[in-house]
Design goal:
single chain, about 550 residues, alpha+beta, Ubiquitin-like (UB roll), Acyl-CoA Binding Protein, PH-domain like, 4 domains, four-stranded antiparallel sheet, 12 helices, about 60% helix, elongated, Moesin_tail_sf
Length: about 550
């Protein structure tokens, strides 16, 4: 067989991309594959056996549609792209998650999808419930809370609360994290699958959980109602209220559902009851509603029948798996508890060891301080003994000094008496000297007056002498027989005798005055020196009196 023949026999394929809530996968599909073939391939790849809850969803012309299982993939109105994208999502929801979700993978996929719907605000949840759900989501992701490992800020990059709740309350990210962590710390010991199941058990009680909403109208012109399809039946809501339905039809009370073009009819089981008719905007919407009604009704009836062999086996396996996991979790919890107890015991021993070491260190320090204190006390005792000896010696010296001061005080008193007597004598001498000085001053004044009078008499005598000698000069020229020189000498001799006598008296008088003045100055100087000596002696005596009083 040629290579060309082999190539012709190879089937043609096309690529598809399957997007789950937390992953993406790509597959090569044969051209003839139906929707069920692709769906089974995805379920096998995921290891999923509870396939009746899920479907493959795609978007065409802005409308979400589910891939039909009984038709070829390429024959359906799917997007023209390569690869073709499908979302693997839960199409139908269980009434009681704890009883119906058997596999862990099924439970995990539901948990991720419901969590996304709550965060995207497709399912309304109160702020208090969102915080509790967020704590279970954190427990499922991070395990048990450990304050040493889960430090503040460890949830900064996790999306845990709807934006509506964040806008409603003016709280910081740190405050929200604190509230979530307070609940999270109470979930200690809960495994991941158990935390996810607790999340779903709370979520299934929300009013919008598992409901697919479609706009409808009671006539062809107005769209003023919402039709909701869920696991329990069909519900009619007002356009502004998705929580409380105006009218509900449980699956057990519905006899028939049919549609014709844009009209859809619900016939109750009670034939007397009114038939409910409504209109949708498109025929595709009626088809989608019809498919969801059939699928939910089939599951509703299936839950109320005896389980098939496959379901019984799956429940048995799930029960065994849960029991095994429970035992495993108990064993792990016990081991963890023992390990924690061992760690606490180790920490206690380390703490006790550290405490004993600290006590030993403190005892050694106390011993060293005691030794130092003993040495210090010995030194202080020696110093005290030396100080006692020194004090005794100082006391003896003080006693000797006291005796000496007493003797000195006696001498000082005698010297003081003598000094006072000398001072009185000095004062008397000073008075006498002052009087003598006054007398001498008066005598000097009289002598100065006498000297002035003598000098005045001398000036007059000289004037007279000049008056006598001046007229004789012309007569000398007339009488040449007489020698002028002889006449002059004769007359001058007479005047010289008078002048010499007068000069001798003046010189003597001046000498006596000068001698008396010098004697007076010498006596004054000696008196001043004596006064200074007396002042110095008096000052020294006063200092000795003060010192003797201080010593006393």
């Amino acid at each position: 067989m040629s290579i060309r023949g082999l190539k012709k026999k190879q089937p043609k394929t096309f690529k598809v991309k399957i997007i789950t809530v937390d992953a993406e996968m790509e597959f090569s599909c044969e051209m003839k594959w139906k929707g069920k073939d692709l769906f089974d391939l995805v379920c096998r790849a995921l290891g999923l056996r509870e396939t009746w809850f899920f479907g493959l969803q795609y978007t065409i012309k802005g409308m979400c549609t589910w891939l039909k299982m009984d038709k070829k993939v390429l024959d359906q109105e799917i997007p023209k792209e390569d690869p073709i994208s499908f979302h693997f999502l839960a199409k139908f929801y269980p009434e009681k998650v704890e009883e119906e979700l058997l596999q862990e993978i099924t439970q995990h996929l539901f948990f991720l999808q419901v969590k996304k719907q709550i965060l995207d605000e497709e399912i309304y949840c109160s702020p208090e419930a969102t915080v509790l759900l967020a704590s279970y989501a954190v427990q499922a992701k991070y395990g048990d809370y450990d304050p040493n490992f889960h430090e503040p800020g460890f949830l900064a990059h996790d999306e845990l609360l709807p934006k509506r709740v964040l806008r409603q309350y003016q709280l910081t990210a740190e405050m929200w994290e604190e509230k979530i962590t307070a609940w999270y710390a109470e979930h200690r010991g809960i495994a991941r699958d158990e935390a996810e199941m607790n999340y779903l058990k709370i979520a299934q009680d929300l009013e919008m959980y598992g409901v697919n909403y479609f706009p409808i109208a009671q006539n062809k012109n107005h769209t003023d109602l919402l039709l909701g399809v869920d696991a329990k039946g069909i519900h009619i809501y007002s356009i502004n209220n998705r929580f409380s339905p105006n009218k509900s039809f449980e699956w057990s009370a519905i006899r028939n559902i049919s549609y014709s073009e844009k009209e859809l009819t619900i016939k109750p089981l009670d034939k007397k009851a009114e038939v409910f008719k409504f209109f949708s905007s498109q025929l595709k919407v009626n088809k989608l509603i019809f498919q969801l009604c059939i699928g939910n009704h089939d599951l509703f009836m299936r839950r109320r029948k005896v389980d098939s062999i496959e379901i019984q086996q799956m429940k048995a396996q799930a029960k065994e798996e849960k029991a095994r996991k429970k035992m495993e979790n108990q064993r792990l919890a016990r081991e963890k508890q023992l390990r924690e107890e061992a760690e606490r015991a180790k920490e206690e021993l380390e703490r006790r060891l550290f405490q004993l070491e600290d006590e030993a260190r403190q005892a050694n320090e106390a011993l060293l301080r005691s030794q130092e204190a003993a040495e210090l006390l010995a030194e202080k005792a020696q110093i005290a003994e030396e100080e006692a000896k020194l004090l005794a010696q100082n006391a003896a010296e003080a006693e000797q000094e006291r005796q000496r001061l007493e003797i000195t005080a006696l001498k000082t008193k005698e010297e003081k008496r003598l000094m006072e007597q000398k001072m009185r004598e000095a004062e008397l001498i000073a008075v006498k000297l002052v009087k003598e000085s006054d007398r001498r001053a008066k005598e000097a004044e009289h002598l100065k007056q006498d000297l002035h009078e003598a000098r005045e008499a001398e000036r007059k005598a000289k004037q007279k002498l000049l008056d006598i000698t001046r007229p004789n000069y012309p007569h000398v020229a007339k009488y040449p027989q007489y020698s002028p020189a002889d006449t002059r000498e004769a007359n001058f001799d007479k005047g010289s005798i008078k002048l010499d006598l007068k000069d001798i008296d003046l010189k003597r008088l001046s000498f006596e005055i000068e001698r008396e003045r010098l004697d007076y100055l010498e006596k004054s100087r000696k008196f001043e020196d004596r006064l200074k000596e007396l002042k110095s002696e008096i000052h020294a005596l006063k200092l000795e009196e003060k010192q003797s009083g201080l010593y006393s």
